[in-house]
Amino acid sequence: MAQLSDTGTSEETPVIDELRDEIVAKLRSDIGDAVIDVHQIPGVDLWVRVSADAWRAAGEALRAQGFDYFCFLSAMDWMPSPFGTGENDPTDEVEDDPSAAEVRQGYAGGETRFQMLARVTDLRRHVSITLKADVPESPDGSMSIASWISVYAGANWHERETHEMFGINFDGHPDLRNMYLPGDFEGYPLRKDFPLLARLVKPWPGIVDVEPMPASDDDEGDDS
Amino acid sequence: MTMLSERQQLSYIAAQAADARLNVELETEGMTLNIGPQHPATHGTLRIIARLDGEQVIWAEPSAGYMHRGYEKLTEVRTFPQVTALINRIDWLGSFANEVPFILAAEQLMEIEAPPRAQHIRTILFELSRIANVSLFLGDLGVQMGAVTPVFMAFRDREYVLNLIEGATGGRFHPNFDRIGGLKDDLPKGWLDETRQVMKKLRNFCDEIEDLLFGNEIFQSRTRGIGVIPADVARQYGLSGANLRASGVDWDLRRDQKLPLAYDKVDFRVWTHPDGDSWARCWIRLQEVREATKIVDQLIETLPPGPVMTKVPRIIKVPEGEAWVSTENPLGEMGYYVVSKGGLGPFRVKIRSASFNNISITPWVLKGVYVPDIITILASLYFILGDIDR
Lengths: 224, 390
Known about the structure:
The complex is a heterodimer.
Chain A: H1 2-7, H2 12-31, E1 35-41, E2 45-50, H3 55-64, E3 69-77, E4 114-122, E5 127-135, E6 143-146, H4 155-166, E7 168-171, H5 197-201, H6 216-223
Parallel strand pairs in A: 2-5, 6-7
Antiparallel strand pairs in A: 1-2, 3-4, 4-5
Chain B: H1 2-25, E1 31-35, E2 47-53, E3 56-63, H2 71-74, H3 80-87, H4 95-110, H5 116-144, H6 149-169, E4 178-179, E5 182-183, H7 191-214, H8 217-223, H9 231-236, H10 242-245, H11 253-256, H12 278-301, E6 321-329, E7 332-340, E8 348-352, H13 354-360, H14 362-365, H15 371-381, H16 385-389
Antiparallel strand pairs in B: 1-2, 2-3, 4-5, 6-7, 7-8
Helix pairs in contact in B: 3-4, 4-5, 5-6, 5-7, 5-12, 5-15, 6-7, 7-12, 12-15
């Protein structure tokens, strides 16, 4: 990233790279081919995608490596929202651009609509890693992945939240009760195809209410 | 609209039924104590269900969700500049601190950086929100344990800090002042002198609280050795901020990560405590208010001249990518995982709030304690409801 390479000295960056390379190499030696893809922004951050079967093994390997601080666990729904994005009027017809409806994953790639997302930190080496895993849907539409509770006890509430919001089941989780919603609530609110009712009832006026930025006064002055 | 209200009514009925079922299930030979959701000791609408054997807790579980506002969903239908108005309300006592990591994540994706003066002012306001937040904690701590005086002192002195925040940003509780690329405005005239005065007052407040509360025998006997969290458990649960440092883990994101904020230009101490008990958590926070006043003092002396806003397009589009930025907020590590698809608004924002992790340890730490200690432990873990439920 330009931002960090400006502030950081040029000698420092390769050192941090070595650290992240070492982490990936160690992870590969621990769980082998389960590491599917790696994305690295040198000196900034590291993303690793592992296979769904190796989700718990990856957590255990990272914890053994020193990543013992549990930051968060969540999921991603990569399907673009069928109700349009916020800046559009959701009652408008969504334009028939085939690429707009395409499921396109972010860093470290992916094959499924849903992906797990977790982040753990090594407090001694001052480095964090974002772990991803594809979550395949079974024919009946349910999804499940191994629970991290035995690895990081703090994953308990995060998995409950993820189950409630995305409908992903965690094998080995003792108590996947809802945290926020009523117990018999239907639907998974953070899925992209779950409508935000308030928006459908009263459409967002759009970008009109963006206030002018302080710098924009000068721009307008130059134009006139 | 009828559809909405019907749905709300149905979910209300369902919630009532679920509650009734839960209460029936819990009818055992022991006693089930329900603390909250409305109770002075629960700091908001957190509800604690504790099963007791005599005076001892054998099982306790917080029931969150009374304030869930669905910010992660709402951010998906907002533009990037609009999101700060929402996330202000996550930890409402230190609102400005909530805006900073999100703005930094957006700036990281856009590969821009705020001018040095804006970074400085951001850091000053960040620390002021820490002082406003934690000084109220110190007062509230007393009132939860039955000492009424500290809370009046805390409200009195927090007022000075809120006046400063209002003077600079126009908002006492929800500044909404941070912008992608800088700040909305520069500081008003005379603000720096006033800040110096207020920092002196706050240091006096810390001394007063230390004498009055931390020197109090009853306070000591109620907090010393109560609710001990060992370091490895704290890390496993992702405890952060003062709760983690009170368990002896020397970790502070202000010092230990590189961000475009002015922390590398100031000299401050990260306090840790080896005990991991309620006392340690409270004591660390007291020291952190003191350190924050020192940070603000140093930043005021070294405030660089220049603009507070870099050139950004009038309509902000954030390039495709993913960014994680977290900062050391008053409550602990607060971070945003921002995914952009190149549009005007974020594709997804995962909000990692400190209190969610900090409170998730309560079933573990409350096991085996006595009823009055529940209050002490919850007070010392320090949570803001909006920060749990989001």
